[in-house]
Amino acid sequence: MAVVAGAAVSITLLEYMAREVTRIDHGVRTRAASAGAAALLTRLTETHADYARWDEAYLALYGELDQDFIQSNLALTTGLGNLYDFAMLLDEGHGEAFAFRGGLPLPTGSADAMRGPLERLIAGVAAEPDYSNAAGFVAAPAGIYAVAVGPVVPVGLPMPESERFLVIGKALDQGVIARLADETVLSGLRLLPPGAANPIAVPLVDPLGTEVARLAWTQPDPGHVALAKVWPVTVVSIGLLALLIGYLVSSALRSLREAAEGEQQARVSADLDPLSGLANRRAFRDRLDEAVARADGSLHTVAVAYVDLDGFKEVNDTQGHETGDRLICVVAASFQSIADGRGFLARVGGDEFALLFEGPDAAAEASKAARRILDHLSRPLALVGHVANVGASIGISVLDDRTLSGEELLRRADVAMYMAKENGRHRLSVYRRTMDAEKRERAAIAADLRAALVAGRLEVVYQPIADSATHEIIGAEALIRWSRPGYGEMAPDHFIPIAEASGLIGELGTYVLRRACADAGRWKDVFVSVNVSPAQFRDGRFGTLVATIIAETGLDPRRLALEVTETYLINYPEEARRAIDGMRALGIAVALDDFGTGYSSLSYLRQFTFDGLKLDRHMVEEMSESEGGLRFVEATIAMASALRLSVTAEGVETAEQAAVLHRAGCQRLQGYLFSQALSANEMRRLHGDTGPIALSA
Ligand code: C2E
Ligand code: CA
Ligand code: CA
Known about the structure:
Elements: H1 2-52, H2 55-61, H3 67-80, E1 86-90, E2 96-101, E3 104-105, H4 115-126, E4 134-140, E5 143-151, E6 165-171, H5 174-184, E7 190-192, E8 201-205, E9 211-216, H6 222-249, H7 253-270, H8 281-295, E10 302-310, H9 312-319, H10 321-339, E11 344-349, E12 352-358, H11 362-377, E13 381-383, E14 386-388, E15 391-398, H12 406-422, E16 428-430, H13 435-455, E17 459-467, E18 473-484, E19 488-490, H14 492-501, H15 505-520, E20 527-531, H16 534-538, H17 542-553, E21 560-564, H18 566-571, H19 573-585, E22 589-595, H20 602-605, E23 612-615, H21 617-625, H22 627-642, E24 646-649, H23 655-663, E25 668-669, H24 680-687
Parallel strand pairs: 15-16, 18-20, 20-21, 21-22, 22-23, 23-24, 24-25
Antiparallel strand pairs: 1-2, 1-6, 2-3, 4-5, 5-6, 7-9, 8-9, 10-12, 10-15, 11-12, 13-14, 17-18, 17-25, 18-19
Helix pairs in contact: 1-6, 1-7, 1-10, 9-10, 10-11, 15-17, 21-22
Bound molecules: ligand C2E and calcium ion (2 copies).
Ligand C2E binds at residues 463, 478-480, 491-493, 496, 509, 512, 531, 533, 593-594, 617, 650-653, 671-672, 677.
């Protein structure tokens, strides 16, 4: 009798815990789904601002309509469908001036079904004195759409007396839902009709408050998955516990049950991180110690993944703590889905998470989860009102020694995480015993690099850039070269990250910039393009430094170009805009480097006054390999030209690539087909006094 009652209590408690875990998991997923839907609208309003707050749009869309502009901007984009697939202009009386969907004009009145909700959105924005826009979900005969609406207004010209409204829309088709599923890591994400009887869903309502659809997903049951795992152990413990209970307090069962329940509940909250709803560091340490004890000397059955977010501090500093908190919640939710009941997830620090895996596949599961986390964070995250970009550095340690404690396992995962960060962030590294030595090695490289800088032993070489039509050399990119004493030539991809991590990059960058400007001063009509690391660009004194070097070397600033990478822009849009504008004011061109590797949205590029972009060499490679790669390159070049950005293709190795790129409208080519990097002397010999010549290619 006592045994049965004791077992019943324990089962009840475990069942309660399992349900609680699943309930928390459902809560996080619901938040992720709502945040994902909201971010979809935010992105659309950002795109709207790009197109509607624009002098050229203003000139083209008021008075007599400029059909060329409409065709090559609005209609073309609805055809490409990546930003929006529906565009409509409403005139001063809100009459339909034109509408396009999928690149084709729509007959007047086709969008009448969404008129009511649209008017409600317009009423909200029309009251605002300056530009503002609004977005919502609407039902149209063609399906459910996310739409954004706002007036078309100039930036540098006087405001119109009466406004015209641009409406853009994106169908919530399979592609959009798939992307949302990726961003939120919700599996089985799908749209259901309004009112569908599915409790695992969030409703999408239009601006009039009418539900137009629901966003549903497949809710796993992590609590019971975990419960099933501990079941064998539990059965034995239950037996013992129940016996004990039976012996001691068979008469006081009822009060004991209450006490036990209360204690468990208290434990649940002491072990929970209130912000994310995940387990906290303390709970993680307990679980880890238990796991190590359970492993009882059998190796490779416990693995820890230590995850540290890259760029979280920047989000927190630039977008505020509230956004930072939201980011933690969204990230926690997605990690939870990734762990999916197989790993134990905890938030162990401000922007640090840890995952614990047990069983014969522990190591494999840990690295699989880590890769999914990296993959997930490689896309911008959907936050309400914001899109944030963070990455993660992940370290993994495995129980591979009988003497390891839980504490040592966690320390090793932390060391491995540190190495991942040192190696350039947003990557995974597995703890190796050699890592301590590696840490020392990196410190030695940094010391040697510092010495080389002081002694002026770093070389700068120049890789020519050709005009795609004439194959004449019109410029060159400065690339650093270092021969480390006793080791030989070391690739910049290897030591630049060490310079960045050790704070040497500022000095190194200044060195290259000064050398490049001095060398280019002796060339004739050929520009020089210098790579600038994010840390240099971020330094408030960078503008002054560049101006000083220009003055010192006497180089015409119009013959200097800078190359910056995307990560910086995303994390610090305001600072980046200011820095770029500052350079432009000096007459220096600024190009976006490595385009196509990260989050490359051209509409987003319009926020910055770039002169050009450099198509990453992997895109050029892919262009030759797949139809999709070619289309991406073609569309990029077409849209870049619409934004009046010059395009330089990197890594051009074959005559065929050069021909295809030229046909697609790419103006500049760089790669081994034309030339490897040349020394300053060779550059001077070829482009010094003789003027531009064509290399054989
Ligand atoms: P990046 O800016 O993408 O530079 C182009 C890289 O592609 C160079 O490698 C160049 O040698 C290589 N490359 C050029 N043509 C071809 C080709 O046809 N095929 C292939 N496969 N590769 C080609 P490098 O010199 O090893 O530089 C690597 C990276 O190091 C650069 O990538 C840049 O991000 C960084 N870097 C180099 N010099 C500097 C510098 O002075 N400052 C900073 N901050 N970074 C630098
Ligand atoms: Ca570059
Ligand atoms: Ca590049």
